[in-house]
């Protein structure tokens, strides 16, 4: 069957871009000096045989990171970034992740390169690796890269099928044809991205000495490079089949038969030894599931080795393959494709080298790049693309026109500056590590979700627990490992708690009654659903400072504070106001002391926090405005709740509060003088979170545990007022205000002052992962 | 110490009425012929040794019902009414509760009267009963009555204490003095209520023959009565101490010493053999807890033997004792009190009999009643009382003025009509049973709470599980038995369910995803939080009938229904509208079939219900309006959700819907013709609930259980659309719409058609009680 014309005309380009995306990439672990590390895979990353996200490739030292299928490229890249940060943070002291596709310093004796070990159940994997070593040698196996897995959205595929109703084939056959067309055209065209995105133009002598003794490679000490190479990895020195194969792309069946023929002819031993730029992947029912693009080099300028924009170029080239006028991809085309790939890889920075166009005519690389870009643009009009894809198109154009902007050219340039392949790449590895230091709280690509959930998901990734975002805007996730399923909402709403405990915590009246019954101090007072009884309560409490509030308080509505109240009219009005907001109201004494948030999981107090209003500490030199700016430089502070702390604003509210103290933003506080910019202590208005976990007298922790047992709660953030944290609890020096059934965990993980209490780990432990 | 004057002037009367109230009352079980039943206490009422509400008094046949402490008299009476209904429904066929304080037909041989048996752990109780038999005889022990336990609100007591700051005593001493004053004055004044409320003016020969051979008793066959007696029970034939004691009321300590003296002198054996009209009760710290009024007879006209209004008279007389000018209650007063009590009891319908006033002067009963009422009124002004207490005052006045209106007079009159003590009382017992038939769903005094909760609390009472209304407006209750505590909200929100399952049920998107994953049919469709994706989904579903709705639907807002939709504009507008109400929307196919509510507890389907819109069935004779009125006579139908079904309205909506069918309220449907008055099937608009538990193919029940296991739910009301209930489930003949985490149970207990599925029992079982 031939690749017939398809009608995509009715479908918007934005819709065609819908799909599923997965990324795999490898990095070799290295020592500080750039030598490949010979240690074992970090224990804290769990069992690499079953871990869904973090495993090893060929070598024990070659960490492989795998993102699950994501709905868009930004999320797939974000997932890989997150995994990368987790892996990087798990390495032994002095180890780094090598940011380059071509290997670091390899041992002179290749036998020293450790093959990945998988234990009892992984013998098969190990013996396959022995087989590879025997055929290709161990050194070549350490060439690393990025694999990009792509499938078209199933919904879009169905629409596409319906738009082509003149076709007589069934849906499955149609779908197969779509993928075969994309695959063949991508194979034909991928030279374009090799030229633009290749990022491995240099080598270390410990590799090229044994693998790739090409005369035109410039040897500069131990570093060597080819001055116009874009990618040694997909060029002559890389990890390719020794002899390029000719495969049959006319149907998926023919394609597989042509690979089987190679195996029969003992050209390769396994189908997976087809190291083409693109593989067509199938499921156990032999239906195509997705395409795997394999020619992408690690980008050493990116901390995680890859970028959204470059992968969007790959995605656009795939879509172009669907939109392109149908054409054959026969033996001639494949030979041209091989030639063009290797030429673009080995000499792609030299626009004068000769390529073959699709008709087999010779053309200079630069001309071909330009004309091919024009063809792309005709099908992928920038106006019809979403902004991020439009940017990718523009970036392609820039790279076509400015070879010096390509990754390979930039690497060569920067390396010349540092004069050394190893040193430059190691400096990049160190720089990348520094760039995330103190910021290891976000789950990249999912920063629309709550920070607490992001932290929990990071820990899930580390432990190899699968994550499904079952209702993303609600922070509703499904976790699963070895069949053990948990549904978790907002990180702390879990199956550990029973419904009636939640309802007890949700209800202030009930919470108080139950705590009181257990002999735990709560603010004195009473609750009323009868207005007359509430009013007559005045006689008992007159003269004291009280708060009158509706049972369910929303944003403080309906709350009245009466200091040393002695006006029955004021009191009765307060009662009436409170009843306007709820059927039940509370009349409570004011409580003294400082408020602490005590986080308890099961029977253990895992974190205690005190919140302080937004403030700066004077140094006798800087103005308040300057001190605020300095304090806001803390990477923990951000805007819009994406960070554990918020930047202190210099707004009206802050100015007003300063004014009330006889200050303004230009005042210069004395050294050591603490100036508050807010009355309220909310973290959301720039307040500081201060860890007190180790500083509070044990008796308060015991009370917190007792309180949660009284309500039969497993996870809670308990708010306690304490007069003096150093003195033991008595019957009148503390008071429990509330048990929160949905406490944030991030404030305990990344406080302004104090330790990371790792509540994400604690919750994962409690969930049994 | 003397009873000094107290200042209650600043405290409103309504506030003084605040207090705590408990009731105990007994009924003898009888056979249909009025003979005392000799069977054992009903097994279904649990262990009478530990049951907090239902036990036995002296005899195995004498059921004692105990209300826990309640906040007002209406609730205490309601509790007793509820217990009474439960006990009455638990009796063996042919047994009744004898509605009279004086005994029914007793065995000629008093040894046949069975002493209550309490098993191994109740030997002490049994031997005390043996002791009583020996002293008083068994027959007298069967005299039954009402005990009214009262204490002043602790808050009011504190206010009272503060208002009397000129007093030097401490709070405890003050409180003791308050109760001693009320007690002494009540002892002095209670003759008044004996005269008005006595309700035992007659006897059966099997009692009087052995106990009370007074010459003036009129013997009429086996019935005998005294024509002016109000209460044999507190008169000469009743259960009193043979010789009235003189006690010391000057302080609680003196009071107790005077009782101990009686024991020393062997006048009585135990303190509880003091059968005064009022006892002062203390706790283990020897502090007064409450007062127990003991002279109240069962009211045979009331199903439960007592009425709110009569107990409010008792309460008012207690409060009067507090407000009355202080006075002594010495030996002379006590002798007068004894005389007045017995005279009022034995001759209280004769206004001419002579009483002693508080100064020891002789006065006719009628004069004394009138003058005493005037004194009462001066302290308890009707204008200052709440309506119900004002009514009680007015009723007192009526009873003072019209002796024929008193219970005793009415009993004597009605008995004369039926000519027989036994027959008349048995006819009352039968009438009372009939009056509650088919209405055993309410918890009296708590009808402000949801019917489901009322039903659950009824079952708790039956099983001897203590109930605390921890947040009444929320239907939040605490259950406890033998230390096993459960907090339950709205009858079905319990500790059995875990929080994440609740969140899954609450979230339609998640419910659907999880059910689909388990291979359970749900309405086809998809959810979206991206508007563009939602819009482009049109291409896949155009032409079919769909519903577009926000994820969280409130009262149907934001829902659009598109039948055979083929206008992209309509569809996109529907999507936009839905997004105005939620971040996430659902686009779903219309589902066919009939909707069933399947109630599942743990692994068992316990009830299946189908709801039918409000309708009547023609008989060829009556108009639709008449048919509605007839249908509305069903005791299950009420107004305002206090009953399992609602009355069908004859309002505008119904008239409109009839009109749309070419009918009006005056139309006369043919025999068998069903006319619908509403399109919607809600029970709240008069719909019928029809039990289908036994009629649905097993496969749907299996699916319901599978669905709840998929969500790890323990209690749910699952809504399923089924095409044909007789055919087994296939992959396209049913669909699960929703799992409700808060399903009503009453609709399954009292359906319009079908069995009571006793979900209240099932839930109590599941809770482990």
From TrEMBL, chains A, B:
Short name of one Pfam family: ATP-grasp_6
Pathways per UniProt: Sulfur metabolism; glutathione biosynthesis; glutathione from L-cysteine and L-glutamate: step 1/2
E.C. number: 6.3.2.2
Keywords: ATP-binding, Glutathione biosynthesis, Ligase, Multifunctional enzyme, Nucleotide-binding
GO biological process, one term: glutathione biosynthetic process
UniProt-recorded Gene Ontology molecular function terms: ATP binding; glutamate-cysteine ligase activity; metal ion binding
UniProt domain ATP-grasp: residue ranges: 512-768
Catalyzed reaction equations: L-cysteine + L-glutamate + ATP = gamma-L-glutamyl-L-cysteine + ADP + phosphate + H(+)
Superkingdom to which the source organism belongs: Bacteria
A Gene Ontology term for the protein's cellular component: cytosol
Keyword hit for Ligase: yes
Protein family membership: Belongs to the glutamate--cysteine ligase type 1 family. Type 1 subfamily.
Protein name as annotated: Glutamate--cysteine ligase
